[in-house]
Automatic annotation (TrEMBL):
Protein known as: Argininosuccinate lyase
Gene encoding the protein: argH
Organism: Arcobacter arenosus
UniProt-annotated location(s): Cytoplasm
Domain Argininosuccinate lyase C-terminal per the UniProt entry, residue ranges: 362-434
Keyword Coiled coil belongs to the record: yes
Recorded catalytic activity of this chain's protein: 2-(N(omega)-L-arginino)succinate = fumarate + L-arginine
GO molecular function: argininosuccinate lyase activity
């Protein structure tokens, strides 16, 4: 063989590899076979296929599915994509009837159907995982409605919270994520099958029938838009990215809380590792990985947005780049939710460390200002500056403001010399937390009410 021929063959092989999608879109084999069975049943109903032909096609497709799932199916570049791989093997099994399956459809609407089915199925399963994670947050929160933790702004100690309340913030985040997947599922639950290449088909088909068989609400209404649309893929990528952002935020707190400086929580040994060189260390590897994997799902979202931004109507080969990022992001969120659920379920909470940390940073300073406004009828700005004096005086005594006696408070500022002893109660950390009893606030009473709302939602 000449060098030119070798080069030509090599280039042809490279082009085959470049053009083919079979090595990743084989992930869609179940959806492809499901769609093909529904299509064959509809063609039979419409008289395009005989009953014997349809039964042979359906039986053959189920055999292909069994071969794939048992590992006896060989995927090759020659078949290019999952659609041709299935159809080619079907024709090998049943002969001529297999060649009739592609009547009244195109690979354009076929891949749109397969991919949408996959996204819809994954939206439901991710929703289920999110609900389990929320349940665990609520269960742990219910054990800590009186456990004090310093609430922070700008990573500075701000006001006392209860730890259950803090955890419910994440329960709320993940509930919004749940609702996003739910909304996307409803918005995208329409069948592309029957749109054909871009303009519909002259064959006598019934799109309502295939839509119903595949579990969609109804068919899509515009063939050209349908075959070129990947909004459903972008939506699941955005939803996953938002969920991973929330996972990253709680992971960051877990890393912080488990440090020697905080020691608020201790993670199960199953979700932490020792250093390879420092045996005394226990590294929060799992939350660090959860935090790090957020970047890759962001990349998958940006990648598909970039692919789609310049595409003319209708279908273009560029959209072959739509799947790998979605597959990767789905696998990432699935394992991340599974692991985070167990991390939260098994973490050990150091109640004493949390409560001692509340005595650093004068968390009840705002309560002093509020007391002066409410009980002494002072303008807030005046109360604010008096409170600064009390904080400075407490610092001079190496005390937290919550630890001051009434005499010490009176000595801090001339305008406090006759202040009521009732003030000492206002500066108590737990009283301060429970004083924030407004709807949505951190008091134990409000936290318990929020837990009840979550429990009712979880049980529906």
């Amino acid at each position: 063989m000449s060098n030119d021929q070798i080069l030509k063959n090599t280039n042809a092989q490279i082009l085959d590899e470049f053009n083919a999608s079979i090595m990743f879109d084989k992930e869609l084999y179940a959806q492809d076979i499901k769609g093909s069975i529904a299509h064959s049943q509809m063609l039979c109903e419409q008289g395009v296929l005989t009953k014997d032909e349809q039964e042979a096609i359906e039986s053959g497709l189920l055999q292909v599915k069994e071969e794939i799932e048992s590992g006896n199916f060989e995927f090759t570049l020659e078949t290019e994509d999952i659609h041709m791989a299935v159809e080619s093997r079907l024709t090998e099994i049943i002969g001529e009837p297999g060649k009739k399956l592609h009547t009244a459809r195109s690979r354009n609407d076929q891949v749109a159907t397969d991919f949408r089915l996959y996204v819809q199925e994954k939206s439901l399963s991710i929703k289920s995982q999110l609900k389990e994670l929320i349940k665990v947050f609520v269960e742990v929160a219910n054990k800590h409605t009186t456990t004090l933790i310093p609430g922070m702004t700008h990573l500075q100690h701000a006001q006392p919270l209860n730890f259950g309340y803090h955890l419910l913030a994440y329960a709320n985040m993940f509930k919004r994520d749940y609702e996003r997947f739910e909304s996307s599922y409803e918005r995208n639950n329409y069948s592309p099958l029957g749109s054909a290449a871009l303009a519909g088909t002259p064959h006598n088909i019934n799109r309502e029938s295939t839509s119903q068989k595949l579990g969609f609400k109804s068919p899509t209404t515009h063939a050209m838009d349908t075959v070129s649309d990947r909004d459903f893929a972008l939506e699941i990528l955005f939803n996953i990215s938002t969920s991973m952002m929330h996972i990253s935020r709680i992971s960051e707190e877990l890393v912080t809380w488990s440090s020697y400086e905080f020691q608020f929580v201790r993670m199960s040994d199953e979700y932490a590792t020792t250093s390879s060189i420092m045996p005394q260390k226990k590294n929060p590897d799992v939350p660090e990985l959860l935090r790090g994997k957020t970047g890759r799902v962001y990349g998958n979202l940006i990648s598909l947005l970039t692919v789609m931004k310049g595409l003319p109507l209708a279908y273009n080969k560029d959209t072959q780049e739509d799947k790998e990022g979605v597959f990767d992001s789905v696998k990432t969120i699935e394992i991340s939710l599974s692991i985070l659920t167990e991390v939260i379920r098994t973490m050990i909470v150091n109640v004493d460390k949390m409560e001692n940390a509340c005595k650093i940073g004068h968390l009840t300073a705002t309560d002093l200002a509020d007391f002066l406004v409410q009980k002494q009828n002072m303008p807030f700005r005046t109360a604010y500056y008096i409170t600064k004096d009390v904080v400075a005086y407490a610092n001079s005594l190496n005390k937290d403001i919550s630890e001051l006696t009434i005499d010490e408070i009176r000595n801090a500022n001339e305008q406090l010399k006759d202040v009521s002893e009732e003030l000492v109660m206002y500066l108590d950390l737990r009283n301060s937390m429970n004083a924030r009893n407004s709807f949505g606030g951190t008091s134990t009473l409000q936290t318990v009410e929020q837990i009840k709302v979550f429990e009712e939602w979880l049980n529906n």
